Amino acid sequence: MPMMRRARVSDHRTLVDCAHRWWGESRTPAEAREPSLLLPRLFLQCFASTSLVAEDSTGVKAFLVGFHSADNEEDAYIHFVGVDPALRGRGLARGLYTAFFERAGEAGRREVRAVTSPGNTGSIAFHRALGFDLVGSDDEVEGLPVHRDYDGPGQDRVCFRKRIGV
């Protein structure tokens, strides 16, 4: 099983490369670029200490980029998670989330938030299996509350929250 450690700024290029490789097989070239756009260097410059990398002797196998809210001292947010497709279903993402929950709870955070696209059924099922609640919205698609234009025009999201450390 890969070892988990805190992320470093120097991981940025590797994480972007992983996002390209891991999502490139199932997407068009333009869609494969999209995940890497969600990983600007700024996230590791400012949130490396709250982000995690799982690696073994052959390289990065999974990562989680997350942070503690600067404006709400009870909130933490999981921004981006990636797992090598060959290792999905083996508990790597669950382990990263659990470690993030523990560290956020130790820092006094009481709620973790995350979002995903409405069509990402795997992500929705994963978050629900981890005990995340769906955040209500004014719109619904196939029984899910969808926050329209959440990340800009046409960028709808399903929002989650999970109480921790209570």
Summarize the structure.
This protein has about 170 residues and is an alpha+beta fold.
Using only C-alpha atoms, the radius of gyration works out to: 15 Å
Shape: globular
Order of helices and strands: EHHHEEEHEHEEEE
- CATH level 1 name of the largest domain: Alpha Beta
What are the low-pLDDT stretches, counting only 5+ consecutive residues below 50?
A: none
The average pLDDT score comes to 92
Largest sheet: 7 strands, mixed
Note the total helix count: 5
**Extended strand count:** 9
User: What is the CATH topology of the largest domain?
Assistant: Aminopeptidase
Report the portion of residues in β strands.
Answer: 25-35%
Helix % is: 25-40%
Number of domains: 2
What is the CATH architecture descriptor of the largest domain? 3-Layer(aba) Sandwich
CATH superfamily of the largest domain: Gcn5-related N-acetyltransferase (GNAT)
Q: Largest beta sheet: what is the strand line-up?
A: 1-2-3-4-5-9-6
- Helix/sheet category: alpha+beta
Q: End-to-end distance, in Å? A: 30 Å
Describe the fold and architecture.
With 166 residues, this protein is α+β, with helices and mostly antiparallel strands. The chain folds into 2 domains: 1-109, 3-Layer(aba) Sandwich (Aminopeptidase); 115-166, no CATH class. Helix content is 32%, strand content 29%. It is built from 5 helices and 9 strands. It has helices at 12-24, 29-37, 41-47, 92-106, 121-129; strands at 3-6, 52-56, 59-68, 75-83, 111-116, 133-134, 139-141, 144-146, 158-163. Strands 1-2-3-4-5-9-6 form a 7-stranded mixed β-sheet, sandwiched between helices. The chain has a two-stranded antiparallel sheet with strand order 7-8. Helix 1 packs antiparallel against helix 2. The radius of gyration is 15 Å and the shape is globular. The two termini are 30 Å apart.
